[in-house]
Amino acid sequence: MIQNVKPVRNNDDCSGFRISREAFTNIFFLFIVASPIFTYSLPETVLANWPSAAAFTDLVARYVPAIDKLTALSQFPHVTRLFLAMLWGIAFPVLLILALLTKPQQNHLRKMAAPEWVIWTGPLMGVAFCWVALFMPFVDAVNLREFDCGDTPFDEGVCLASTSRFWLGIFGTTVIDLPPSLVPGRG
Fold first, then answer.
1. pLDDT at position 108
2. Selection from 101, 99, 88, 96 nearest residue 17 by Cα
3. Alpha-helical segments (H) within the chain
4. Which residues, at least 6 apart from 115, have a Cβ–Cβ distance to it below 8 Å?
5. Residues 63/180/141/39 CA torsion (nearest 10 deg)
6. Main-chain dihedrals φ then ψ at residue 50, nearest 5 degrees
7. Which H or E run includes 7?
8. Of 116, 107, 122, 114, nearest to 180 (Cα)?
């Protein structure tokens, strides 16, 4: 699956290890497929049973306010809290590093004579998307009964993720781990 990973050495590029965009896409989709399996495998008492997981979750939640907001809405709060902490604390940095190690996509847009604003739209969208996923400024309900589940597709996704471990895996992984994929490779 990840056959396109190889070191790149030539006179123009001495930065070393690079992966292809296809390999990055495969890794991203692997995260999406594995996430529901992971959320189903966690017991609801996961944070009580594993103190180190609870400590890690508390550390990440201190810096990511959205974790506690979404945990308050969830029917399985401990699983949601640990899963979101793992996405933000482990998966997001890994995917961001891999995105920065991909072969440059920016040069392909320049060869097509794309306007400069098109080249920077992806990274800027990634930053905006990341800010929304990090702070969830429009989620102010303290439980699912107070949350309006239907005004926008995002609200529908939050409601699905709050009531189904499958959708927590799909929606959580997509929303949190999508911004790194919008980062163009270094050139």
1. 52
2. 101
3. 21-41, 46-49, 51-63, 65-73, 77-86, 92-100, 106-111, 116-135, 153-163, 165-177
4. none
5. -90
6. -120, 90
7. strand 5-8
8. 122
What amino acid is encoded at 101 in this protein?
L
DSSP-H helix ranges across 136-187: 153-163, 165-177
83 DSSP β-pair partners: none
Q: Which residues contact 87 (CB under 8 A, 6 or more apart)?
A: 172, 173, 176, 177
pTM of model > 0.90? no
How far is residue 81's CA from residue 133's CA, in Å, rounded to a whole number? 14
Sequence letter at residue 185: G
Tokens for 35? 């996430």
* Consecutive 10-residue averages of pLDDT for the chain (187 residues): 52 59 83 91 92 94 88 91 92 81 58 61 69 66 68 77 90 78 54
Q: Which residue has the tokens 């739209």?
A: 121
Q: Which two tokens stand for residue 182?
A: 């919008």
Q: Give the C-alpha separation, 98 to 92, whole Å.
A: 10
Tokens of 172: 């959580």
Domain residue extents for the chain: 19-182
Q: 110 to each of 19, 116, 178, 179, how far by Cα in Å?
A: 20, 8, 23, 21
**172 in Cβ contact with 84 (< 8 Å):** yes
